[in-house]
Amino acid sequence: MAFDIDMIKKVYKTMPERVDKARQIVGKPLTLSEKILYTHLWDGEPTTAFKRGKDYVDFAPDRIACQDATAQMALLQFMQAGKAKVAVPTTVHCDHLIQAKQGAVPDLKRANETSSEVFDFLASVSNKYGIGFWKPGAGIIHQVVLENYAFPGGMMIGTDSHTVNAGGLGMVAIGVGGADAVDVMAGMAWELKFPKLIGVKLTGSLSGWTASKDVILKVAGILTVKGGTGAIVEYFGPGAKNLSCTGKGTICNMGAEIGATTSTFGYDDSMERFLRATDRADIADEANKIREYLTGDPEVYENPEQYFDEVIEIDLDTLRPHLNGPFTPDLATPVGELGKLAREKGWPLKVEWGLIGSCTNSSYEDLTRAASIAKQAVDKKIKAKSDFGINPGSEQIRFTAERDGILKVFEDLNATIFTNACGPCIGQWDRSDLKGEEKNTIVHSFNRNFSKRADGNPNTHAFVGSPEMVAAIAISGRLDFDPMNDTLINEDGEEVKLDIPQGIELPPRGFDVEDAGYVEPVEDGSHIDIAVSPTSERLQLLTPFKPLGKSITGAKLLIKAFGKCTTDHISMAGPWLRYRGHLDNISNNMLIGAVNAFGMKTNFVKNQLTGEYGGVPDVARDYKAKGIHSIVVGDHNYGEGSSREHAAMEPRHLGVAAVLVKSFARIHETNLKKQGMLGLTFANESDYDLIQEDDTINFLDLDQFSPDKPLTLEFVHADGSKHVIVANHTYNQSQIDWYNEGSALNLIKKENAS
């Protein structure tokens, strides 16, 4: 029986009428993405044909999902909204605060001890406000959502960029900051610029060593980390129907790495199989009644160039396995060509670790395909040359995989089975084999491979591949190993070759679990009190931000970030995750990973008041203490990566008034707006080069801040010379209202009080 089946039935009941109406208004056949978007308009029945990439639209998502690291700040904000209960079905999943070290049992025990204050807070807040709570060890948020909450044709937002994983089950699922989630939890509309549409036509069938992961690795190489910004990627074609549901989820999951708003697939037989296998036959039955509304219109897929803003075609018959990296997920290289490239670039060929799991590739099918390679190594007497780590996606998957003997295969290869949690994928990894910052290589089936991402070492070269390819590469211990053509020497000195991986889409005996880890909230939580100690290092009640005002002068340049500046650079994860519920403490990591264009060092900027150099947070705090605003300047795709709103809240907390960059990643730009800051882009990108280390900035026309009107900034250099720079913005009037009130949350509180 599905969660929230009545809500799902309600969506399906209104969908045909709304889609038919939207088709009439738009005047042409509709993509799946358009059908879902027009079905979920805040005002109900469609009345307007929206312009892609231009019109801001209010939506009514069906549900919300939060992971423990981001849920802390989201719920701290919701507690200020003045509501007794969340307005839509919401869940919290404890998966980020569990460090991988010794193995599942000791790691989970240690996490429950060290993070008990946070887990207890999340559990009690969830219980009070009617939020479903998934305990530590229950699984990774996106796999749990796919198994329990995702449904074809639905709309979901989540406080994690990989919320998009649910597109594998035909949803429009979008990663957002916590403030966006608070809007919807409080019963308000959620605003999004109507996305552009990228169509990916898949033909043929996967075979041999090629996996679903290779589809998105190929797409990432084509579109790059910013090519999907502001767009939904919709996959279709005969090749799409040949993929498993969890394979589709993998592809959608890594759509976050191309900046896409989300990715999705039309409802098909593989989704129906997955729904029935996960005890949701009732959803499958309802979906089958409106099946034609849960995929794009036939005319769209027959002539995609007429309906999508961009079309890519990939032939699965000829697609080759890839390994992407290092340091960026869009550096795509076919396996077999990587050795030559690695030698040219000086990348270490010896592979130290192979890591399988994460929200991207931790399904039953993923584990079976990787296990088929691991079993060959055991049977053929091949000793693995690298260490192995496995993160199952959920307790249901772990329990079922253990029952079916899959985990034992990995254990026979001396693999460490970690907790059903994110672990190394988000830097929650106590890697004992490193003695410093030595140059080394790892391979994993995760989604991101930014510098320092997995283990904090800037010299760890991480490469992204499918679970089965990761298994083969790790067994060989060589980055240049090509399992399709190369052989290995076993313990008897014999030359052996690995056979093609074999996977099982769904467990033949069905899924099973003793305790999935779910806690249902009480019906009435009004009697529950939420206590946060004022001396806590982990949690801190929020103080509303004060408006920045319509006159900002004498602001100081804090840092001019050079090159890639992701949310990992702005607000690191790893050991800093412990402070995600304490804004002041976590602000001590603000921008410490960003490279300063002046001196090309990290966490080393000039304090213009003293002339001395110090850490970015320290200098920002000094400016703030003296009543001086600061601004941050950045490069392209600033804020790429995680949805973490801490990357916006920390600068806001430390007195940063504006972030001026060449271009933004979508979620981060929205997060800045939500916190009442100025997110601006250079009208002329070359003006980035004019910014000098000792600059003082005056906003010349902030009192005229209005939609579609650029702002003018005066940069005064140390020698007294000046440059006037025009800065564009994408604020509409409601977003300018957030700025004027100090934050979107302040506006919610004001409206609720009136």
From TrEMBL:
Keyword hit for Metal-binding: yes
Entry GO CC: cytosol
InterPro entries named in the record: Acnase/IPM_dHydase_lsu_aba_1/3 (IPR015931), Acoase/IPM_deHydtase_lsu_aba (IPR001030), Aconitase/3IPM_dehydase_swvl (IPR015928), Aconitase/IPM_isomerase (IPR050926), Aconitase_4Fe-4S_BS (IPR018136), Aconitase_4Fe-4S_dom (IPR036008), Aconitase_dom2 (IPR015932), Aconitase_mito-like (IPR006248)
GO molecular function: 4 iron, 4 sulfur cluster binding; aconitate hydratase activity; metal ion binding
Pathway in which the depicted protein is active: Carbohydrate metabolism; tricarboxylic acid cycle; isocitrate from oxaloacetate: step 2/2
Keyword check for Iron-sulfur: yes
Residue intervals of the Aconitase/3-isopropylmalate dehydratase large subunit alpha/beta/alpha domain: 35-477
UniProt-listed Enzyme Commission number(s): 4.2.1.3
Any single Pfam family the record assigns to this protein: Aconitase
Residue ranges of every copy of the Aconitase A/isopropylmalate dehydratase small subunit swivel domain listed in the record: 557-685
Top enzyme category: lyase
Protein name: Aconitate hydratase A
Keywords on record: Iron, Iron-sulfur, Lyase, Metal-binding, Transit peptide, Tricarboxylic acid cycle
Any one Gene Ontology BP term: tricarboxylic acid cycle
Superkingdom of the organism of origin: Bacteria
Reactions catalysed, as given in the entry: citrate = D-threo-isocitrate
Family membership: Belongs to the aconitase/IPM isomerase family.
Cofactor(s) essential for the protein: [4Fe-4S] cluster
Signal sequence extent: none
